[in-house]
Amino acid sequence: MTKNYSALGFTLDEKQTDLIEKKLERVKYADDLIIDLILRVKEDKKYFWDANVNFRWGTTAHVEADDFDFAAGLNKLMDVLDVKVKKEKDKIQEKK
């Protein structure tokens, strides 16, 4: 899985980058299913999170979250992303 994350309106510091890496461990179980994960965060009074996940079989998943706190917004995004990845994984396993 290729991970790419970027910030709009501010620069990610090392602490924030480490937090993102730590939270992405939640979807580590799907490493072999995901081609790439593109994560963007925009700061404009609050943090707006946006992620695109491209799966091996051509499906793309898009999830969003927002919060006034960086970590809380990331947690919300990861909760939604985790559910989305599990659903896709289950769908593909049912077809086998």
Describe the 3D structure:
- The chain has helices at 14-24, 70-95; strands spanning 2-8, 34-44, 46-55, 60-67.
- By secondary structure, it is an alpha+beta fold.
- A four-stranded mixed beta sheet has the order 1-2-3-4, with helices on one face.
- The longest helix is centred in the C-terminal third of the chain and has 26 residues, at 70-95.
- The radius of gyration is 14 Å and the shape is elongated.
- The mean pLDDT is 91.
Gyration radius, in Å: 14 Å
Class computed from helices, strands and strand pairing: alpha+beta
Strand order of the largest sheet: 1-2-3-4
Largest sheet: 4 strands, mixed
Q: Could you give the count of β-strands?
A: 4
**Shape estimate:** elongated
Number of helices: 2
Weakly predicted, low-confidence segments: none
Mean of residue pLDDT values? 91
Binned strand content: 35-45%
Q: Termini, distance in Å?
A: 22 Å
Helix content: 25-40%
Order of helices and strands: EHEEEH
Attribute tags:
96 residues, alpha+beta, four-stranded mixed sheet, 39% helix
Please provide a brief summary of the model.
The protein is α+β, with helices and mostly antiparallel strands and 96 residues long.
Secondary-structure blueprint of this entry?
Layout: E1 2-8, H1 14-24, E2 34-44, E3 46-55, E4 60-67, H2 70-95
Parallel strand pairs: 1-2
Antiparallel strand pairs: 2-3, 3-4
